[in-house]
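Appendix B. Chain record.
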Amino acid sequence: MDTEQGLIVPVIRDADKKSVLELAKELEQLAQKARDRKVTAEEMKGGTFTVSNQGAIGSAHFTPIINKPEVAILGLGRGAMKPVARDGKVEVRMLTPLGLSYDHRVIDGGAAARFMVDLVSALQDFNEESIKL
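Structure tokens predicted for this chain:
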């Protein structure tokens, strides 16, 4: 989280077991605690993977750097409407730059590439209606 005191990176535990809505709620709670300087040392420990969204403050593509002892970081840049070719037609779509950095001693490059392919597919096919309240 980008705060007046600098970058603070609390950990969301068991993220793989939570819905998008549960993750969003927990992220908002942790962000508020970080802004209020009430995040605990325990809430900052034990992360393995970081998602960094510099797009939220206007940055485009960037190269995220792994924060030891974590093993990977996904960087999201600012999305922009751009022309793309799909099914033989040119259409304007929102494109968001993504960058993945990972520790090759822990993560196989092929697995990382497949993760990115699956992530892009999931983002392209994401149904916003599934999370509307």
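Further analysis of this model is presented in Appendix C.
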